[in-house]
Each structure stands twice: as structure tokens, then as C-alpha cells.
Amino acid sequence: MKKLVVLSGAGISAESGIRTFREMGGLWEEYDVTEVASPQGWARDPHLVLDFYNQRRKQLLECEPNAGHTGLAELEQYFDVEIVTQNVDDLHERGGSSKILHLHGELKKVRSTRDPSLIHELESWELKWGDTCELGSQLRPHIVWFGEAVPAIPEAAQIFREADYCAVIGTSLNVYPAAGLLGYLPTGTKTFLIDPNETAIYHTENVMYITEPASTGVTTLKELLLAETGQDINP
């Protein structure tokens, strides 16, 4: 079974109602990134940071996976699909995909401020000041903040090295090191970029542009991939 590697970003979640950060009207217009998504902001005002992510979790409870998420899960009937996502929501999981690597953390998880390896599922949408881990230290959002290393990059790079096909969905490719993962694709890997906006992939050969939102673009991707591999739509 051929391996399809997917790099997904905020665009696929936006169709489910998740507010993005960089788009017009996005969260960065309301919040200073250094205040709510950096170690310095956490040290300065942890209550503000906790409230910011509590509101993100509360919003996530009201959102459902869209056809882009469920369509990627359906592709597992035909391909070995591995999703590397920049998103911190759980919509890929709820959409039915089975192999998902979160580069920037997970909104519904928290971790120890003393030992980053102590990671727990948050049972509710709210993390409070005074909520501690088993070591007695404050819990923080399990999110990779600006200025922090992205520990999942080596694993993600290996996934991209093994790709037969690649799909880039809903990401501007402006965020590094995530955008640099395309550089690990085997030479000539056919890559599909799904985005209704004009986004270009540079330094990558054999790119096909699907100028659609994820909710319809994944269906187009499925049709193109099945034609490419000569598979029947009902295996």
C-alpha cells in the first residue's frame, strides 16, 4: 500500500469554525502572541495564558470535523495515510484518522512545568492555576510556544522521507520548522497542495494545485490519487 503523507494547517480546521491566528480577523488581532503563546508570557501572566487556552478548548467543544477531516480518514481504505498536523485541535482524531502526529502540541492535553515528559489528558475544558501534576508542580498547556523547540520534528522528518505521495492542506507554509518538512520528501514525490488561496510551494518538484477548501479539495485529491494509482473507488 502506497504511503500518503499529509501536512495540515489551520485552513482545514477553520472550516469547522476554529478561529485561526494569522487570517484577517484572526486571534493575533486580539492577542499579542508574546503574551499568550511564549514562555515569557507564561512567566509574566500565567492566568492570562490559562484563560486564553481555556477559551480555545471551550470553542473546540462546539466544533465538529468537516468533510476534509473525514475524507482523509476514508483515504485509509486505499493508502497508508500519515497526517502531520500543525493544528492543536483533535478534529483529525474525531474525523476518524488513525495516524496523526501533532507538531505543535495538543489543546486537550496538559503537561508538568517541572518535567515536560509528564503529559496528561485534560478531563474538562478548563485548566486552573493551582492544578498540579504528580510532582506538585503547576500544569501548563501541552502546546509548543514561540521560542520553544519542536520535539516532534525528527519523527515528522522520517515520515516525510517515506512518502510516496504528499498532500499539503490548509497551511501557508510560512511557519518553520514545519514548512521545511517538504525538503525531506524523496526527489520527485508527487505533491498536492489544497488551498483556496494562492499558496506556492518552492523548491519542490511535481506539484499539483487544487484551489479549493479542504472540505471539497480532499474529494478531488481522492479522485486524482485513485486515477494515479489505478485503484477502483470501491475497493
Please describe the topology of this protein.
Blueprint: E1 3-8, H1 10-14, H2 33-36, H3 39-44, H4 46-60, H5 67-74, E2 80-85, H6 91-95, E3 100-102, E4 105-112, E5 119-121, E6 139-143, H7 153-161, E7 165-169, E8 190-194, E9 207-210, H8 214-229
Parallel strand pairs: 1-2, 1-7, 2-3, 7-8, 8-9
Antiparallel strand pairs: 4-5, 4-6
Describe this protein's structure.
It is a single chain. This protein is α/β, with parallel strands linked by helices and 235 residues long. The protein folds into two domains: 1-16 and 65-104 and 151-235, Rossmann fold (3-Layer(aba) Sandwich), CATH 3.40.50; 19-62 and 107-143, SIR2/SIRT2 'Small Domain' (2-Layer Sandwich), CATH 3.30.1600. Helix content is 29%, strand content 19%. It contains eight helices and nine strands. The chain has a six-stranded parallel beta sheet with strand order 3-2-1-7-8-9, sandwiched between helices. The chain has a three-stranded antiparallel beta sheet with strand order 5-4-6. Helix 5 runs parallel beside helix 8. The longest helix is centred in the C-terminal third of the chain and has 16 residues, at 214-229. It starts with a strand and ends in a 6-residue tail after the last helix.
